[in-house]
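Notebook, bench 3.
Goal today: get a predicted structure for SCP2 domain-containing protein from Lichtheimia ornata so we can plan the truncation constructs. The sequence was checked against the plasmid map this morning, with no discrepancies at the termini. Length recorded as 128 residues. Pasting the sequence as submitted so the record is complete.
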Amino acid sequence: MSDIVVPGFASSELIAALAKIFDEYTPEERAKFIKQVNGIFQFDIKNKEGKVETFIIDAKKEGKVTRGKGTKADATLSLKDEDFIALAEGKLNGQKAYMSGKLKVKGQIMLAMKLDNVFKSLKPQAKL
């Protein structure tokens, strides 16, 4: 999972934690999660230095997390590093972030509503 953590991107640590959780899912848990979300998310995250990293959360086919482009996303979300963390921790409302321009979505905007299900899987294990 260390290939997911990127220096200068605090969000990459949360994404790596998510990847670890997905890896530990039983086949039944993975199937339930995929059925619940059924989408591939691409996150284009910009850090304070203006660099952008891309992460893919596949909650449609394989139930895994990767760094870099590759899989065609159903929804592409662009946001700042600190906004991603606030969103994942539940401190930033996704709709408000979208309306205020902090979060940009391309593709299936309704799929972005299911992100809560993805981030909820972080809650029990991550120290947020």
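The domain at 10-120 is CATH 3.30.1050.10 (Nonspecific Lipid-transfer Protein; Chain A). The first helix runs from residue 10 to 24.
Flagging this for group meeting.
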